[in-house]
Amino acid sequence: MAGLGADFRRLWSASAVSNLGDGVRLTALPLLAAAVTRDPVAVAAVSAAAELPWLLVSLPAGALADRVDRRRLMVTVQLARMCLAALLTAAVVADRSSIAILCAFVFLLGIGEVLFDAAAPTILPRIVPREQLTRGNARLFGVELGANEFAGPPLGGVLFRLGQAVPFVLDALSFAASAALLSRLRGTFRPSGTARTRKAGLGREIAEGFRWLWGDSVVRTLSVVVTFMNLARAMTMAVFVLYALQTLHLSAIGYGVLSAAVAVGAVAASWAAERIRPAAAGPALVAAVLGHGLTTVAMGATSNPWVAGASSAAFGFATMTWSVLTAAVRQTVVPDRLLGRISSVHRFLSWGSLPLGSLLGGVLAASYGLRVPFVAGGAAVVLAALVAARTLLGVSALLDGRSGRGGSGGSGGVSGSGS
Fold first, then answer.
1. Hey, CA dihedral for 32, 55, 260, 25, is it positive or negative?
2. Is 60 helix (H, G, I), strand (E, B) or coil?
């Protein structure tokens, strides 16, 4: 992290500790749901409840992030999530962890996540030079995946074995530590043009973000493609714990280790992606989408945990490559006053598919078996890659033509987004 500055180190550390808690919680919650019931639809309902806020709250969250001090918003949200995690711990200790209660808690935690993630992408351009955005994004995505999907899942499995409430204690502490680190970021994080934004009104602000994103064919294509990627991911993650326990015959700790395999590939990609030149960005994006789809199909086609683990690692590499490249483009070309809304409109379109994917995955698994969500979701992503290949390849020329330009472009700019 040399050359990125002390504030970047604080941001990186806040991301590391928060995502470690997320990884622990996101492993423990499916195990807790599976301890309550083995009904695939009920287990999938918990995942759907966690993802529903992306559909319901994304758009106003983005407008809010373009109105207020973004650092203060992130700190406030982390403290609120700390309190929710503490309440969830109390519910588990009191043996009140029904599916309905789990759905309610993850829905509220999900609202906090949407608000936090609407502001988070706007912070990096304020603390690192423009030419270091790809490097900074790679480091942040690397620690996010490393903590969330490498260190967190096996730790979550171990802590769950120690006691069902233990993982959620660590989660609450991680939110507190993250808030403390974020509060130490120096400088101003209030968006430019705040007065103009407030005069426009919330509805007009959201509409402006939609027009900016949808008016560019490249931005539109990136959003549609990642919608398919996230739909497939939600279909598989909704039943992933049952797939690991019943199809691969793993223990709770084995499930955590398998979940961590994604981060092995993701960490490798975070190192490789920052070295991709603009001229190679288009082919890299096509390869990333194809890799996402093919590795998902491979997981559904195997009963061997080693093959499933290797496929998960390759999946992580593909997903990280996509995320780093598209996030850097968005931060480069989107005007600061629109950055929160563009990110949130993208996530409304792409992450809004997560609840549908979770429910679809549960229904397909209950009707046809646990392998079917993997095969169907992966095939859909491969098809999306083939349809969008020409536009994705054109990203190279657009990035080459915009290298060195500032982020003050209007609606004609090119924007990308991570999955």
1. negative
2. helix
Q: In this structure, what DSSP letter does residue 190 have?
A: P
Q: Does residue 279 belong to any structural domain of this protein?
A: yes
CB neighbour list of residue 127: distance below 8 Å, 6 or more residues apart:
5, 7, 8, 11, 185, 187
Q: In angstroms, rounded to a whole number, what is the distance separating the alpha carbons of residues 41 and 123?
A: 38
CATH of the domain at 268: 1.20.1250.20
Rg of the chain over Cα atoms, rounded to whole angstroms, equals: 20
SS3 69: coil
**Residues 175-228: pLDDT tens digits?**
999 999 999 998 888 876 555 555 556 777 778 777 887 877 777 888 889 999
Other beta carbons less than 10 A from residue 168's beta carbon = 30
Claim: this prediction has a pTM higher than 0.85: no
Token pair of 330, please?
A: 């968005």
**Which residues, 6+ apart, have CB-to-CB distance to 321 below 8 Å?**
269, 272, 273, 276, 284, 285, 287, 288, 291
416 is a domain residue: no
* In contact, 54 and 347? CB cutoff 8 Å: yes
**What element of type H or E holds 238?**
none
- Which helix (DSSP H) or strand (DSSP E) does residue 132 occupy? none
Q: 3-class DSSP state for residue 162?
A: helix
pLDDT at 116: 87
Q: Distance between alpha carbon 86 and the CA centroid of its chain, in Å?
A: 23
Residue 396 counted as domain residue: yes
Buried b or exposed e, range 75-97, using 16+ CB within 10 angstroms? bbbbbbbbebbbebbebbeeeeb
The answer to whether 130 touches 407, Cβ cutoff 8 Å, is yes
**Domain carrying residue 78:** 6-402
The total domain count for the chain is 1
Joined tokens for residue 207? 């509409």
User: What is the C-alpha to C-alpha distance for residues 86 and 313, in angstroms, rounded to an integer?
Assistant: 32
The secondary structure element, H or E, covering residue 19 is helix 6-36
Q: Is residue 419 one of the residues assigned to a domain?
A: no
Distance set, CA 282 to CA 221, 344, 391, 396 (Å)? 13, 23, 8, 5
Amino acid letter, residue 110: G
Helix axes 70-93, 58-65, angle to 10 degrees: 140
pLDDT at 406: 39
